[in-house]
Design goal:
440 residues; Purple Acid Phosphatase, chain A, domain 2; seven-stranded mixed beta sheet; five-stranded mixed beta sheet; 25% helix
Length: 440
């Protein structure tokens, strides 16, 4: 589903607010930005990265060319005397972006798959483990949707000693760094119809599964990429709204429209009735076709039905409750906004700053791969800051990649402010993209 958010987004590139500054161009000397120094020689800085999307096979993994730069940044973080914590806010490992025709686990299991990811990306994992083992900087992992079903034991096996911030619900987590309860860090997929855990649908087919439909879309999108962006091998039949079918049929029609749009945008050479999507993941054992996923209609204006995720349009309210979403949104809004990056941003503000039960003033999401800082006010008219931590995938259309966030908490002085800065590391040059401050 991330691919939808990246490839369909029409939003403009974030304008750099400032770049590295020249001291004297005549002698080619420049001021070098050190994002990990607070000038106080005190360990209090919190670094957030997300959406690394480390894969088991570099033939299709989304992060390949950026791996050396990621390793270099991690080593800089380790060497920084002022960094207190590194938070990896979801999509560390990628169980979703695997071509549909590929057996994800190669006949083995998740533990072996995760070990393959660690081996494939050895230098990056060595760098993270070096930070953990040194013990000066706390390293925390929060799950995302592309590592939705990755078990805690699998993460521990490749990053022994890492702190895992997980909800009781598998695939979700929200984290407030130690001593900083005003900060909330989560991946952001909890609020997305296609990406939030779905422990309700498909239980008769795959008992215990929580995989949402975005998993299957991403498998198709990955196939589209390795097939080198082909012409379509098939087309979906058009269905029409069942006017007399009530709200449930209206919602299923909306759901079909999203599938129809994305299948058209990411064509594959295969026919839609061809069983190509190999699973053996999270309770699923079958091999499925596109037609198994997309709603269908036997007669124009008649009953709309769907095979996989049958009834998904009716269980969103229950999914939100099970996924601990404080402020619920309607099924229609959730379905209509699945490809909107700004909806994720809106949810950060709604769920935290417009929530009377929340005391958070700084919220960090990943998920959309669109790095940004947005300021707003809470219900008490106090300034709040939302920041999206971007991504580390090689190609992030119309946006930057190699992003990270640094939060420097305020001191005890009354006039002191907490600083929130968004950076870019492309070409291994640190560039500040946006910054905000507030006092609480």
């Amino acid at each position: 589903m991330k691919t939808i958010l990246r490839l369909l987004s029409a939003f403009f590139v974030i304008v750099f607010l400032s770049v590295f500054t020249s001291c004297d161009k005549s002698d080619s000397t420049y001021t070098v930005i050190n994002p990990f120094s607070n000038g106080l020689n005190e360990r209090n800085m919190i670094v957030v990265i997300s959406d690394l999307h480390l894969g088991a096979d570099l033939d299709y993994a989304e992060c390949k060319d950026n791996l050396p730069s990621l390793e270099k940044l991690l080593k800089q973080i380790k060497a920084a005397p002022d960094v207190k914590e590194l938070v990896i806010a979801g999509d560390l490992v990628d169980e979703w972006f695997v071509p549909a025709t590929t057996d994800t686990y190669q006949g083995k299991d998740q533990a072996d798959f995760v070990q393959r990811i660690a081996t494939t990306n050895k230098e990056v994992f060595d760098a993270i483990n070096s930070i953990i083992q040194e013990g000066k900087i706390r390293v925390t992992y929060v799950p995302g949707n592309h590592d939705l079903t990755i078990m805690a034991a699998s993460i521990e096996s490749i990053l022994p000693g890492i702190n895992q911030a997980r909800d009781a619900v598998l695939g979700l987590g929200t984290y407030s760094p130690v001593d900083y309860p005003e900060i909330a860090i989560e991946h952001g997929h909890r609020y997305n119809f296609f990406c939030a855990p779905d422990p309700i649908s498909n239980q008769d087919i795959a008992p215990g599964t929580i995989l949402p439909p975005g998993y299957f879309f991403t498998r198709i999108a990955a196939l589209y990429v390795i097939q080198n962006f082909p012409l379509p091998g098939d087309t979906l039949p058009v269905i029409s709204q069942n006017i007399s079918g009530g709200e449930s049929q209206d919602l299923l029609f909306r759901y079909w429209k999203k599938w129809a749009m994305t299948v058209k945008m990411f064509p594959i050479t295969n026919r839609f009735d061809e069983a190509i999507i190999h699973t053996n993941v999270n309770g699923f054992t079958g091999i499925y076709s596109v037609n198994d996923l997309v709603p269908y209609q036997l007669s124009p204006g008649g009953l709309i039905n769907v095979s996989l995720y049958n009834g998904i349009q009716d269980n969103w309210e229950a999914r939100q409750t099970l996924n601990n979403v404080p402020i619920h949104i309607s099924s229609a809004e959730a379905i209509d906004s699945v490809i909107s990056n700004t909806e994720t941003d809106h949810q950060a503000i709604l769920q935290y700053f417009m929530n009377s039960a929340s005391d958070k003033r700084i919220v960090v999401f990943g998920h959309t791969h669109e790095p940004k800082i947005v300021t707003s006010e809470n219900l008490d008219s106090k300034k709040c800051v939302y920041v999206n931590s971007g991504t580390w995938i090689d190609h992030n259309p119309d946006k930057t990649t190699m992003n990270f966030v640094v939060i420097t908490p305020q001191s005890v002085e009354v006039s002191s402010k907490t600083l929130v800065k968004l950076y870019n590391f492309e070409n291994e040059v640190v560039t500040i993209m946006a910054e905000e401050s507030l006092h609480y």
